[in-house]
Amino acid sequence: MKEILNTKIIEIGEYVLRLQNLLSFVIFLVIVIAVYYSIKRLIFRSKTLQTSMKYTVSKLLQYIIIFLSFIISLKLLGFNISVLLAGSAALLVGVGFGLQNIFNDFISGIILLLDGTLKVGDIIEVNGKIYKVLEISFRYTIVLGRDENYIILPNSSLTSNTVINWTHSEVASRFKITVGVDYSSDVQKVMRILKEVAAGHAKVLSKPEPFVRFEDYADSALIFGVYFYTDEVFRVENIKSEIRIQIYKAFKENGINIPFPQRVIHFSKDADQKDSNQ
């Protein structure tokens, strides 16, 4: 039996792969896969962890197991790890310079997964654009834009730039719609209509309730701000559009005009007399 296990399968220079090495590697691989999926199943069955945290823990576990399994597998297959590392030190330095951006993304991915500031399902704003986080890996994050396009963001761009996380806390997000009306409008009536329209939308939260502010005297209009809260952060532009349509209808029904820019020009009498004399 011992002779069979010591049977040489591959022999290249000083390296020899024996049957016992191959069997040990296969058995180790089967055990690792079984253990990983068992632990993963337990993680996703947990009732104490949130869904996003289950994903984070599962990803970290996956990468740790892959790294450790790779090192152990080399040893089981008969490779001298210390010799390999020493012989490839110069190569690793050169590769390191070439892959420094990838390494930066890799470290950024670890930070994102560990600190929990960014989770799967979060709605984020990067460089003025809104995205929904679909997947976080060690090198990149896959997000969905409002145009239904899938975008791959390097993790380093998320850790080095300012990122607004609209769903980081359980507090509902507040949004605003700006409306201008004619100077002849009844201010109290306008504010009442705006609040009723906002409150009547199905996806606007009743608590905190929407409110209206009289914000400014513009050149051609009285400016009001309609503030409302909603949990539908990713599709809030659709909600704003629907509210604007209802505001337009309500104003039309109540005889309230939305003005366009106007200019009033006054002529002095002296200027008119000079023109007539000429």
From TrEMBL:
<dbReference type="InterPro" id="IPR023408">
    <property type="entry name" value="MscS_beta-dom_sf"/>
</dbReference>
<dbReference type="InterPro" id="IPR049142">
    <property type="entry name" value="MS_channel_1st"/>
</dbReference>
<comment type="similarity">
    <text>Belongs to the MscS (TC 1.A.23) family.</text>
</comment>
<dbReference type="InterPro" id="IPR006685">
    <property type="entry name" value="MscS_channel_2nd"/>
</dbReference>
<dbReference type="InterPro" id="IPR011066">
    <property type="entry name" value="MscS_channel_C_sf"/>
</dbReference>
<feature type="domain" description="Mechanosensitive ion channel MscS">
    <location>
        <begin position="101"/>
        <end position="168"/>
    </location>
</feature>
<keyword id="KW-1133">Transmembrane helix</keyword>
<protein>
    <submittedName>
        <fullName>Mechanosensitive ion channel</fullName>
    </submittedName>
</protein>
<feature type="domain" description="Mechanosensitive ion channel MscS C-terminal">
    <location>
        <begin position="176"/>
        <end position="258"/>
    </location>
</feature>
<keyword id="KW-0812">Transmembrane</keyword>
<dbReference type="InterPro" id="IPR010920">
    <property type="entry name" value="LSM_dom_sf"/>
</dbReference>
<feature type="transmembrane region" description="Helical">
    <location>
        <begin position="22"/>
        <end position="39"/>
    </location>
</feature>
<dbReference type="Pfam" id="PF00924">
    <property type="entry name" value="MS_channel_2nd"/>
</dbReference>
<feature type="domain" description="Mechanosensitive ion channel transmembrane helices 2/3">
    <location>
        <begin position="59"/>
        <end position="100"/>
    </location>
</feature>
<keyword id="KW-1003">Cell membrane</keyword>
<dbReference type="InterPro" id="IPR011014">
    <property type="entry name" value="MscS_channel_TM-2"/>
</dbReference>
<feature type="transmembrane region" description="Helical">
    <location>
        <begin position="60"/>
        <end position="77"/>
    </location>
</feature>
<dbReference type="InterPro" id="IPR052702">
    <property type="entry name" value="MscS-like_channel"/>
</dbReference>
<dbReference type="GO" id="GO:0008381">
    <property type="term" value="F:mechanosensitive monoatomic ion channel activity"/>
</dbReference>
<dbReference type="Pfam" id="PF21088">
    <property type="entry name" value="MS_channel_1st"/>
</dbReference>
<dbReference type="Pfam" id="PF21082">
    <property type="entry name" value="MS_channel_3rd"/>
</dbReference>
<dbReference type="InterPro" id="IPR049278">
    <property type="entry name" value="MS_channel_C"/>
</dbReference>
<dbReference type="GO" id="GO:0005886">
    <property type="term" value="C:plasma membrane"/>
</dbReference>
<feature type="transmembrane region" description="Helical">
    <location>
        <begin position="83"/>
        <end position="103"/>
    </location>
</feature>
<keyword id="KW-0472">Membrane</keyword>
